[in-house]
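User: Assemble these into one structure.

Assistant: Restating your components, then the assembled model:
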Amino acid sequence: MRKYFESLPVYSEFFDEAIDAIIAAMDSGISAEKGRVLIELGSTNKDFWFLKDGFLKEMYRSPYAKEDSLFNMIPPSSIFVNEDTLFSNQRPQHYFTAYTSVEILRLKEAEYMRLLQKYPVVINLLYLSGTAEIQKSRRERLNMLRMNKTPNRIEWVQQHRRELYHIMDRITLAQYIGVSRASLYRAFEKNKKYQF
Amino acid sequence: MKQCGKLFRLIFPRPVFFNNLSSPYQTNTTTPMLTQEEVERLHYGLLSHIQLQGDVEVQALRELSSKFTLRDVPAGHTLWDLNSDTGDLHFIFEGTFAEYLQRGTHSFILRFSRPGKFAFSEDLLLYSKRSDTYSKALSHAKVASLPSVHFQNALRQGGLGAKLMEVLINLSMTEYRNTTYEMLQTSGTNRIHAALEQFPDLLHLIPRRELADYIGISRASLFRSLKEIGHE
């Protein structure tokens, strides 16, 4: 967890005291087996969650698909939240499923508020910096989704999301890059270098 | 407060004053004063996003609203340029803007900004780096702009500034989330439907070539899909 904070652009040694306090305030959270939906992030949950080990699928209900669709894959050492609940006080439109077995730590909302009172500037900066990083990553992925050739999208995942490329099965990869399974298989057929 | 300033500079380092690579098209007319009606619209726009606590923040928001200046941006002119170092915050009264990302020699549309919404370069305002994008008016536009110096001053003071920053990041995240929904559709037709849901006038705003790039399909697929949904 400390590594996560140290990787934020805002980090300096000045933040260490607050980071120690955050780490001390986290509880053991959840261990979940592959396939389990994280019901702990219910409709009113505003806690901050840290994925320590394993991979999560972030799912949503697409009006254009019969089944729920993949929105994003969350790799280890990531913070995730109920965005709708936390940012807009609305029911969450997304939910999280364990793609592998996962271990997750939690910072309860009440603990976050307590720490915010104690270290207002530092906690705010860590929050903003962390959110800005998520946003940057979302923009990069969006640029990939605008590529009109499937092989280019696969190459982007290979180069920029290596960890995910190695863990995702083909169906998940197709969903992650926004192409049909048929298109993905055609691209793999054409170019053997994409083989897992 | 001194400590706060130091921390602020850590996340938002002092901008490097590059040579401003202004586009020849950036010839916007700047009018310093907003009419009372425009001030009210701007104030309402800010209020709809920021939850204020106490009279101090109400007063701070009033003061911040008064620092915006009015700009007319003719169609085809830019709101900010590629490699620019001036991270102003804009609130759109009239017109629509497209924000373009440049990769190599090719530019493609990243997102649109419409009336009643904020427009800003994330690189400049949130990440303190030179802008990787530029924003161009698709129709004649009128915007209220807050010069970056005032935005940064508000941030340094914490309170309202920090709330505004949080709002801008959240707005960006929500926009990208909605656009990601569009782009995750595997069929061209569904992508167009999803994009039109976000921007009903999209088909009239940009040429078909740019539209194809925006939704990540080939031009042939775009024409097929548009025909299928009865738009061609």
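Residues 95 and 141 of chain B are 4 Å apart (CA to CA).
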